[in-house]
């Protein structure tokens, strides 16, 4: 019961942090919207909303998902503090490593999608079949959903190499086995890139290539550390 009470307190603290983050982000909705429109710079496009409530609901969604993303590092910290007393010395080192690297990988993946994937994908969409006289009129809600799903998918997808490295360090799988399964892992990367990103080949390729490179880096580190 004592452990359950501790777990309950940590879950409540994460939920409180999430609610506060969401409320703060909603108060700064205009700045958040400007931040999301930065990948459109240089494209000569404006965003529109087509229903009276669309902008308000989009701001609510942005605040909600932004609060969820901001709560990830805090949730990882609370989970680490909960299991810390039950871990052995080598496990505490791995947990500390994962707690520091996981948020960094998440935000690195989101930054990669924001600065590289999104501009390339948007230019591809805008320049697709320009001679058919069909002009772009992009809605704010659909654009925000596209961009945020791209950031979230990229951030989550960047956690995969860390999970693979921890599996090798904890002895759950050997680097030799991982190397033997390389073709299947590449297929899994391609499948997850197609599943998690918006339905266009450009975003899938741009997400799959760095993930493959991170996989090779994780395998190399696992071989070095496990001998």
Written overview of the protein:
This protein has 227 residues and is mainly α. It is built from nine helices and no strands. It has helices at residues 2-27, 29-37, 54-83, 89-127, 140-157, 160-169, 175-180, 182-196, 201-226. α3 (54-83) packs parallel to α5. The protein is flat, with a radius of gyration of 21 Å.
Short précis:
The chain has helices at residues 2-27, 29-37, 54-83, 89-127, 140-157, 160-169, 175-180, 182-196, 201-226.
* Overall 3D form: flat
How many strands in all? 0
The radius of gyration over CA amounts to 21 Å
Oligomerization category of the chains in this entry:
single chain
Low-confidence parts: none
Percent range of helical residues:
over 70%
Largest sheet: none
Strand proportion, as a percent range, falls in under 5%
Order of helices and strands: HHHHHHHHH
Going by helix content, strand content and strand pairing, the class is mainly alpha
Give the averaged pLDDT, no decimals. Answer: 80
N- and C-termini, Cα separation: 42 Å
Number of helices: 9
Helix and strand arrangement:
Layout (H helix, E strand, L loop, with lengths): L1 H26 L1 H9 L16 H30 L5 H39 L12 H18 L2 H10 L5 H6 L1 H15 L4 H26 L1
Protein traits:
single chain, 9 helices, flat
